[in-house]
Each structure stands twice: as structure tokens, then as C-alpha cells.
Amino acid sequence: MIVPDHPESKVPILEFPSAHVARSMHDTKLGIATDEVNHFNLTLLYKAAERGFIRAQRVLAGICYYRGIKTQDFRQAIKWYRKAAEHGDAAAQHRLAYCYARGKGVTQDCIEALKWYRRAAEQGNAVSQYELGNIYYKGKGVVENHIEAVKWYHKAAERGRTDAQYKLGFAYYTGDGVPQDYVQAYKWFSLVAKKYDDEVLFSQKPPPDEIMIKIENNLTAAQLAEVQRFI
Length: 231
What we know:
- By secondary structure, this protein is mainly alpha-helical.
- It has a domain at 1-87.
- It has twelve helices and no strands.
- Helix 1 crosses helix 2, helix 4 (74-86) crosses helix 5 and helix 9 runs antiparallel to helix 10.
- It is elongated and about 65 Å long.
- The N and C termini lie far apart (49 Å).
């Protein structure tokens, strides 16, 4: 059996039982108690990462070093995130960008953050697409560009990212970065409103249903009929 995420895709999985450890730890995230991650399993995971298994590299960075199951070491996390990111792993690219954006294990660097967010975003990572939108909207390390920001908010919104859907709706509502379009604004706010109450940490204000009421007051009869399909 060929290992799909090995950089050369030529190594039989049976030679690397540690790949199973990496997959198990990744799938369960932090569902494994600290004392259950024994030295033997970590050694196997490390060996798999050293042999070039991208998933093992990402898991080793995230669970063992960034989150600190055994010992928290941001520099080691960066090392393994970078290896996986350079092999094209979108999740690792996103995490590496996050570390650069916040100075975790590296000197804070908006340019490097932008580079890795872009690489992950171009592979369809919705969180990176949203963060890239924020970077362009605020002009962090780039020239402020609301048109480019909205482009990335739109990509993330289409992948179901609620905060991106809100910002996209607000862009259409105010005509910021796109031509003002109340129907499109209503469409995206309606999607947010369906999930708004369930997302405890969602902090966008004002609430989408309040904006939807204001939009309704500015719609023609034909537009009101059109937005009914979003409700």
C-alpha cells in the first residue's frame, strides 16, 4: 500500500506503523489524555515525521509542540510546521502563517504571514482565506485594498465561514469593496442569521437580523419578493 501524503509517495505504509499513530492523534485532536501519549508513540511519530510523512510532521508540530502534550516548544512547532508547509500541506501553511502573524516561535512578520496565508488560501483553506481578507482590509503588510479583501471574504463565505459571510454581507450592504447590492447583502446576512444564535463566540455587531430589517425597508417590491427565497 502506498502512503498518499508522503512527499515521494513511494514508501509502503507497513514500514511505518508510526503513520497510524499520527493519523490517530490527528483525528482525535486532544481527545487523548496526556498520560496516554507514551514515549513509544511519540518516538514513532517523530520517526515518521523525520522520514517525510507530511501528516506526521503537522501533528508533531501541533499536538506535541504547539499545544504541548509533553513539552510546549514553539520553535520546534515552527520547524515541523515549516517542513509540512513546504511540502504543500494547507493546514500546516495556515498554522505557520498564524505563528508569523502573532510571533509564536518566530519574530512577528506580516510579510511571511501573508505569504503562507496566501498559499493555504489558494488551496481552499477557508480560515486562511478569511485571514487574507482581513489582511487586505486592514492593510497589514500590504497596501490596503478592500476589493481584494472582499474577494477573499467571498471565497471563505462560499466555504461556509460565518465571519466571512457576515463581512461579505456588510460589504454589499455598505458598498465597501463591491457595488452596493441590498439583495446580495440580505442573502449573506440570512445565512449568518441562521447560525448566529448557535455561535457563542461570534462577536460581529450589529446582529445580522437587525441589518436585515433595515435592508427590507430599502427594497423595492420586486426585491422583497426576491429575498424571500433566502429566508
